[in-house]
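Collaborator request, handled under Task 6.
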Amino acid sequence: MTLIAHWYGHGLADGLVLDTNTAGPGDTRFNIATAGAAHVDASGLHPPRIRLNQQPSGPAQLVWTSTALGTLSSYAVRTYLEMSAWPPAGAPLAQAYGSGNTALRWRLDITLAGLLRLRDASNNVVATAARALPAGVELRPEILLDGTDALVTVHAGDDEGDPLVTLSGPVGAVADAIRFGTPNAAPTWPALYFAAPAVADAALPIGARSHAGSGVWAADAALAVSPRTRRHATGTWQADAGLAATPRARRPASANWPIEAGLNADTGRSPLYVQILGEWRPADVRHMADGSWRLS
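Structure tokens returned to the collaborator:
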């Protein structure tokens, strides 16, 4: 599975108006962005994120079209989402379109009671959550599409345990555009935020985004706490012959490997990261015992 589109916004200034040219290092630019609706926001679990404002008489959307995605038949969509309160009427949150971004394939919306709903290509509700989602909390919806089969899960933030909500049902097949926000002429959400949106080319969970940065790393001196951890992007690790005791650590072949500046604070997360699908994610600390790796 490969991420074919993602937006993290690293290095972008707080409050910057987001348009089709606004992207951080390595980001996939949105092909369509409602003028004046979206702004870079420095808050949230994975800052920066996107604040999508209401528009008085039109839609408010960010869209990846076939220019970025091609044609999708088996794919996955992930985003982080937060609403300050539930809308006074049902509000679309994300949707897929086909036939050149003209025909609905599926839609996620949320009711005034905080119930998530999955809709099909005719905009009919095919599944509704049995429990309300919490407002004012950053959530992580993931939508897996395999032909006409859709599976939706919602986790709280980076949690990888049991989802808060699971929905499934038949929807429209073959999409060429993913939209975040609403196509409605009268949006009704209070305050809506998206973070780390991504699309993958297989119907498998993308998973949580790590706290590690993407593309821009600080020097070793930025680390102010122990333990200090190194990792490389493209080279190979070499064993340190000077270490005679166990456990043996490894060091990079070059003295100039990048270090994540975010580790200078106690985040409560593992200081070791692995790269998965182009994203740095916290790794479990493990040890070798009886030929098998086990959690320490």
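The cover message to the collaborator said: "Residues 78 and 206 are 7 Å apart (CA to CA). The chain has a mean pLDDT of 79. Please let us know whether this matches your experimental observations."
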